[in-house]
Design brief:
This protein has about 110 residues and is an alpha+beta fold. It has one domain (about 5-110): RelE-like (YaeB-like fold, 2-Layer Sandwich). The protein has 3 helices and 5 strands. A 5-stranded mixed β-sheet has the order 1-5-4-3-2. The protein is globular, with a radius of gyration of 13 Å. It starts with a strand and ends with a helix.
């Protein structure tokens, strides 16, 4: 079964904004999708489960950007195992923001209950 991908509107805005700064972002995201389609919960210490429920896992991962030559971006996504679906929730630059938007994650959990 093939993995499907969605983005919430806030993520789309962040991707667009960061994409202007870091030109390799769209292809880096494609590369990231290739990795998580094989190992949705990650394959190293660079992936952490932030929250989970019966339907999905919320993951935080280091996001490698060629333009930045390093992994100073972070990406938050949910993985729906049954549906083989990934939804991107947040993308941020570690230099601008220390941690993920907890409020957004709480809101996401609330909006995606059974």
């Amino acid at each position: 079964m093939k993995m499907s991908y969605n983005e919430i509107p806030e993520f789309q805005k962040e991707l667009k904004k960061l994409g202007k700064k870091y030109k390799s972002l769209p292809s880096d995201l494609q590369e990231f999708c290739n990795v998580i389609s094989v190992v949705p919960l990650g394959n190293s210490k660079h992936f952490n489960i932030v929250a989970q429920n019966d339907l999905f896992f919320i993951m935080k991962a280091r996001f490698f950007c060629r333009y930045l030559k390093g992994s100073s971006l972070r990406i938050i996504y949910s993985y729906f195992e049954q549906e083989q679906r990934i939804e991107f929730i947040e993308l941020y630059f570690k230099g601008d923001k220390e941690n993920e938007d907890r409020g957004r994650i709480k809101e996401y959990l609330k909006n995606n209950q059974k």
